[in-house]
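Per-record layout

source: Paragemmobacter straminiformis
name: Choline ABC transporter substrate-binding protein
length: 309
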Amino acid sequence: MIRTTVATSLLFCLCTPVFAAEADSCATVRLAEPGWNDLALTTGAASVVLEGLGYTVKSDLLGIEVIYQSLKENELDAFLGYWDPAMQTYAAPYEADGSVERVRVNLDEAKYTFAVPSYVAEAGVRDFKDLARFGAEFGKEMHGIEPGSNQLMFDVIADPAFGLEGWNVVESSETAMLLEVQRKVDRKEFVVFQAWAPHPMNNAFDLVYLTGGDAHYGPNFGAATVSTQVRKGYLADCPNVGKFLQNLSFDIAFENEGMGYLINESMDPREAGQKILAARPEVLDGWLKDVTTRDGQPGLAAVKAALGL
């Protein structure tokens, strides 16, 4: 019996990573997101998993600039939503001085640029340079999301190549912007707005992404990746959580479905995270490879038990 117990213990040690004891400060994982549904979902799903591992998660709703300043000042630990290249302006100074570190790309095949309803495209608006000709129809307005998240729209207006002098950016929130788009679509009115994938808006609206924004949004309709970032030294300070963040990745279908729970079923981010993980439990195998609970037990089994899987 003693030999069997020793052999089992050795096998567990060989199969399960052993991290140095994490500092007490690692017991609470401090996250933030800017109020975008995609990041609310991914942060909610990550929070559910971390809680299943025995961590306490504190998640704040903050503007982009505040998120980066908070990471620099060690008031946040991780951010799952660096959209590249759309957010380069915000992140570059912090990555350059080393106060914010990039962990990995957690989503490929994203995109982010201007869009219009298909009836507006059929009327002749298919490129950024078409906007000026229809200024009256648009009311010289373009619709963005939260203040602090629309700098590229302001840059486009300031770019003389597009002839958009006198145009305004209507800043509100993702939800308010989409409600306004829906109102205008219902009335067949002209509207140009900030659009992206993944997002259920791509199913809710018959929309067309505009060409011509490469200088500001990048090629291929603002083709983007989304990456995880952490405060300086976090991966070394909290290696078990760090390993989870190094494993964590999503796909377009996962996010489209999960964001639908937020938008169409009015779930909060943790509820949506739980529901999408129940629908897609296979993702946990990769997310929790070589990850333990806070007290060193197998992470995958603990999270599945916490989720009732």
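summary: Confidence is low (pLDDT under 50) at residues 1-16. The chain is about 45% helix and 20% strand.
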